[in-house]
């Protein structure tokens, strides 16, 4: 059994609730433009998908563009997927992913502004693969991200090419592989890691402070506070006062 939900939304004020529950595949395709969107997505089951099959496919998409967005996503099950670009200022994302062998490939602010973002993300499961990119060519300022990961053998590649990031992450599990890039502006990262045989690479590359309301940056400093409880772990930290990648 396969279920498909396709949305095309253009509005200045939108509230949308999507719910799918099945034992086979559920698919949601979104093309949305408009401000003050509140979007809830609950998917329960095996092989759920939100957005593109991958970024090389133009036939399916999750494209969300707007300001003051509230997004709440819950995926429960194994082999689920989330793909797609997001362009949004003043956005609050609350996401929970439970299950194994899930894939997330999410571009936020790649082709448009993504300022003043607050993300609260919880992942529970094993062998999940994440590629999360914030910013790149356009403005992406003042990101506050809380990530909780419980599980083993997960691979996370997180690139934040944005100004003035605060990133708090708590990880419990063995054989997790994390590659984190924080680039430009001031960066603060708090790490609480419990588990054996972890592979952690952190690159903090400071740049210039961002002006504007709510900005407390006085110098483009990079700060890491770590609490590690692990055997056989490999941790590499690179900090640079440069705008170049490590």
List keywords for this structure.
single chain; 246 residues; mainly beta; nine-stranded parallel beta sheet; 61% strand; disordered N terminus
Class computed from helices, strands and strand pairing: mainly beta
Q: What about the largest sheet? A: 11 strands, parallel
Distance between the termini: 47 Å
Helix-strand pattern, N to C? EEEEEEEEEEEEEEEEEEEE
Mean pLDDT comes to 79
The percent range for strand residues is: over 45%
Overall tally of structural domains: 1
Helix content: under 10%
Q: Mind telling me the C-alpha Rg? A: 18 Å
Shape: globular
Model regions low in confidence, pLDDT < 50 over at least 5 residues: 1-17, 19-23
Number of H- or I-type helical stretches = 0
* DSSP strand count: 20
Summarize the structure.
The chain contains no helices and 20 strands. It has strands at 2-10, 14-21, 25-33, 37-44, 49-50, 62-67, 70-76, 81-89, 91-98, 103-108, 117-124, 129-134, 141-150, 155-160, 163-172, 177-183, 187-194, 199-205, 222-229, 234-240.
